[in-house]
Design a protein that fits this description.
By secondary structure, the protein is α/β, with parallel strands linked by helices. The chain is built from eleven helices and eleven strands. The chain has two domains: about 150 residues, 3-Layer(aba) Sandwich (D-Maltodextrin-Binding Protein, domain 2); about 100 residues, Periplasmic binding protein-like II (D-Maltodextrin-Binding Protein, domain 2).
């Protein structure tokens, strides 16, 4: 190699070393780990149906809230849900109005509610061939409800009986059968003279079991009250609660959201706060004074 060639080789090699020395390096930024939150629904339906109908709502939240992952939590019965809620084990929840009021004493606050208050009422179902026509026909007979702590499907129907001449503590045998579907089926099977529930489970029963539903009739209904609440534990990040409230309360404004709501079925979720449920406190005071005492929760 000539001296000129050697000089050129050394020059190029030096330039290569210089470029390598100043070449920047990039390190991929690690994504922030997701925080996990529970979202529990009180036993509106059996756990399988609850997951089927509310699972897509939780999936919707997961797709639209970055850095958070919600897990839908179902309970076998009201008692199990109550224990978890009142122990503060749930991050977010959709309790009935009675449970909503009680949750405020256990570190929760209201940020929303289900819409369609006109549907939050108790109804009584009987077999068409039962011979039951007036409320006092129930004296001495068995009647069914989902649970003692169900507001629309138990307390409001019991208050209806009270205002129509029935002492629910003496005149009827009360069966608390664990779920809305079980209460309806007790009437269909003739195991009780009448079954208490509320409109949404009855509408779903009619859709899924039209032959059975045709043998039942809605014979009485109560006045409406405010619908089920949405609550968050007080230590949840305010920005997260606001994001959940915004997403749920605007579901009815887009096609995907309306399809999700139709599965429940309701027309919308709405904003609400603790004071929204003062009307429930008033009803509970009247119920406890006139029908039966409520156990402290």
């Amino acid at each position: 190699m000539s001296w000129l060639g050697l000089a050129m080789f050394l020059l190029l090699a030096g330039c290569g070393d210089e470029q390598q020395e100043y070449q920047p390096s990039f390190v991929a930024q690690q994504a922030q780990p997701e925080k996990h939150y529970s979202f529990a629904i009180h036993p509106l339906h059996n756990p399988e149906m609850l997951l089927e109908r509310y699972g897509p709502i939780v999936d919707y939240l997961n797709r639209h809230i970055e850095g958070a992952h919600f897990t839908l939590e179902a309970s076998r019965n009201y008692e199990e849900f109550d224990k978890k809620l009142y122990a503060g084990q749930l991050d977010f929840a959709l309790p009935n109005p009675y449970q909503t009021v009680n949750s405020l004493k256990h570190g929760y606050h209201v940020f929303g509610k289900m819409g369609d208050d006109h549907n939050f009422r108790g109804i009584w179902l009987v077999r068409r061939d039962s011979g039951i026509r007036k409320v006092t026909d129930l004296k001495g007979k068995k009647v069914s409800y989902p649970a003692k702590t169900a507001l629309a499907a138990t307390m409001m129907p019991q208050y209806y009986l009270h205002t129509h001449g029935i002492d629910v503590n003496k005149d009827v045998e009360n069966l608390y059968v664990g779920s809305q579907e079980s209460s309806i089926m007790n009437a269909y099977l003739g195991q009780v003279a009448a079954a208490a529930t509320w409109p949404i489970p009855w509408m779903l029963f009619q859709q899924q079991h039209p032959d059975k539903a045709a043998q039942l009739e809605l014979i009485w209904q109560t006045e409406p009250l405010i619908n089920n609440g949405l609550v968050a534990r007080s230590d949840m990040p305010k920005e997260l609660v606001e994001r959940v409230a915004m997403l749920l309360s605007t579901l009815h404004e887009n096609e995907e959201g309306r399809a999700l709501l139709a599965r429940l079925p309701i027309s919308r979720f709405e904003r609400a706060n603790d004071a929204s449920y003062d009307v429930v406190r008033s009803f509970l005071a009247t119920f406890s004074r006139n029908v039966r005492p409520l156990e402290p929760q």
